[in-house]
Fold these 2 entries.
Entry 1:
Amino acid sequence: MIVDVSLRPGIADPEGATIERALPALGFTGVRAVRAGKTFRLVIDAPDEATALERARALAERLLSNPVIEDATVRAGES
Amino acid sequence: MIVDVSLRPGIADPEGATIERALPALGFTGVRAVRAGKTFRLVIDAPDEATALERARALAERLLSNPVIEDATVRAGES
């Protein structure tokens, strides 16, 4: 399972902003809207994929993200 | 463009290990092989998608990841 955690739109992203500001000096122009996020890859032992997805979703929302400022999305994928 | 940066196989991942260790006490069992990574979403102004992908790849390898311990993969995707 792959859990993507990204800042909600409108929430300030200092890491992304810093990268974006640094890029032109490093030779990369035309790059904008840089947003940093986190990804967690994990294996869930479950009887079927639907159950695994459901558990991953609960885990993502309750533990891996802060729902006040972040969105978590879950997808099946190799770990 | 979406840039995924993950630790290479075999490189210790203290964040993932800490999450994995904490999960049973929090009610999640059967979760293993937790690995933490980073994701960067960005918009690249380029004449076509192939050029944008190429620039994103250069940026990912040179600036967004540490090639000694991390793998970076780039894919097209909404920012």
Entry 2:
Amino acid sequence: CNSMKLSSVNPLVGDIMTSDVSIIQAEASFNDAAKTIMDKQFSHLPVVDKDNSLVGILTAWDISKAVAKAEYDLVKDIMTKDVVTTSPDEAIDIAAFKLDSNNVSALPVIDSKKKVVGIITSDDISKLLARRQ
Amino acid sequence: CNSMKLSSVNPLVGDIMTSDVSIIQAEASFNDAAKTIMDKQFSHLPVVDKDNSLVGILTAWDISKAVAKAEYDLVKDIMTKDVVTTSPDEAIDIAAFKLDSNNVSALPVIDSKKKVVGIITSDDISKLLARRQ
Ligand SMILES: C[S@@+](CC[C@H](N)C(=O)[O-])C[C@H]1O[C@@H](n2cnc3c(N)ncnc32)[C@H](O)[C@@H]1O
């Protein structure tokens, strides 16, 4: 076998996702979002409504874009509403395909009720490849 | 062989890096940086001095942090100066290890004269894993 070894079985999203993901409310301010991104050292925040259901995603890139356009609005005004998601029981290579084909760096992980249970990023997937030394 | 197949040989950074990377001058303004990040759709900008040598890295996360702290300074004031780098002939799994162990999402690719010849991100590495369909 000459292929690069990741593991002997195909891991699932639930095996490598970050469970203690920071989320933000759609009604939060632009500044709240920037503060959360700084404090939590996350570049991607799933956005939820009052019922804690996923309604969007906000990234450091969106903050930077809002700065460039001088549009300092609420999270709901600058977030991406059409979110590509995954679930804990999806295979990692499917999640990697979704990241690639949608040109995004992170997928919120949701349960059947659209509640956010984690996040998986291309950083997490890249880690699978890091040679442990 | 039960391992996930990436390719039959271990690819090099030079094989999958992005060569037409956008860079920014250390003396550029905060707003120039935000505009470049928006226009080029990149989250990570290698920062160069007047001789085009690498002196730092600036990311959308740094822009977001500057917003949170209300510090709208020059690129050189908000960039990360201690940059982890790679070279075109480094193996991908070493680059993945550097990303992981330094908790970063991108590595500028430099030549022997510290000139930036590309960038490699965890997105690029994650793509290796995406099942081509
Ligand atoms: C520590 S990470 C935390 C954010 C989050 N983990 C992410 O996905 O972007 C962000 C910081 O890493 C820095 N950084 C990014 N790439 C770097 C590199 N290759 N070498 C050194 N610092 C880097 C950025 O300038 C930024 O200040």
